[in-house]
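Researcher: We're teaching a course module on how sequence relates to structure. For the next exercise, students receive a sequence and then see the predicted structure as C-alpha cells, so they can try to spot secondary structure elements on their own. Here is the exercise chain.
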Amino acid sequence: MPSIGRNEPCPCGSGKKYKNCHGPIDAEQATAQRKIKQAPDTLLPKLMDALDRFGLELPAALNRFWNGSYHVQDIKELDQHEDRGSERFLTWFAFDAQNEAGQTPVQRLTADPEGLALTDAETQVLSHWSRVRLQPYEVVAVRKGHGLQVRTLFGDELLDLEDHKAAKRVELGEVLITHLVPAGDTQYVAGAAAQLTPDTIAQLHEFAAVHLQDMRRSQPDATYADLIQSRSHIFNHFVMALPREQQEAGKLDELVAMTRAALNVTAEQIGFGSAETERSVPAVASGAPAAADGSSDDVAEIDADNDANVGTGVGDTTQTFETGGLPHPKTSRAEASSVPQYQGQDD
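Model: And here is the predicted structure for the students to work with:
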C-alpha cells in the first residue's frame, strides 16, 4: 500500500487531512506491530534465564534429548562434544520437556510469568508459544534477501520465516529441524536450525512413522501432531545419527532399523516396503502387541553409536546455521545457533 502524506485527504472519505484522522491510529498500530516482531529478541533470553526454576527436571530431560549419550554431570563439557550443545538442549528443554502434568517450562511460565518482567508485546507473543516444538520443516520457497516459506514436513501448514541472511544460504527442498516461534504474521528461528539435504527426507519420514506406529498402540487416534507434541526429542536423535563421512551413509537406515526393532514395529505395519506412501501410516487396532520393553509413550530409546556422536566431521548430509550470522560448513551434526536477534533488515 502506498504511503499517504500527512496533509493528504484521509482515505476513509471523512474529508479530513490524514494527520487529523486515521494517521495517528495507523501510526500507533504500526508501532505495536513493530514491537511484536521485535519481542522474540528480548523474550527468549528472559525465558532461558528462568529455566533454573525447573532444575530438578533437568537430568531426565537431558538424558532423553541426547538419547542417553550425555548425563547431567557432562553438562559443563557438553559444548566440547556438541557445538553449542548446552544451548541446543536448553532450547528444547524450554519448549518441549514436559513434567508429569504434561506441561513444558514455557507453558508454566506463560501461566505464571511473575519475575519475568515482560512487556505488553512480550506477553502477547508468549501466549502463542505454548505449542512450539522441535520439528522438521521443508523449504518450499526462498526469497533471497527477504526470507523463506516453509511447510511442516508432516502436514500442509505453510509458514513465512523472516530470516534475511538464512534465505541466502538455504535451498529449495531442504529440511530445517528447528523451533519456529511466531511473532505477528511471521516466524523466527529459536535456537538450533539443522539444515538437512533433501535426500534425508525418506528416512526421516520412515523414522517418524515407526514412532507414530508405536504411539498408536496406546493412542489409536494419534497423529503426527501428537507425535511432535510429545516426542519431539526423536528429531534430535535423527540429527545425531546423520553420517559424518561418505562411508557412514548407511547410518540413517541403521537408526530406522534399530528403532523399529526396539519398538517392535515392522515395515509392513507402517506402510514402508509396500504400495503405501511414506506419509501414510495406518491406524493400529486396539490390543496391538506392546513394545519390546512393555512401554508405549515412554518408549525404549535407541542408543545410536555414541562414538559416532562425538565431534563434528565434514559430510554432505546437513549443515546448521546461526540466524543473522555466517553459514557453518556442511557437517553431519547440529551446531546450535544462538538466540536470533531481530534485525528488521539485512545488514
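Model: If you want an answer key for the exercise: The first helix runs from residue 23 to 49. Residues 274-318, 323-347 have pLDDT under 50 and may be disordered.
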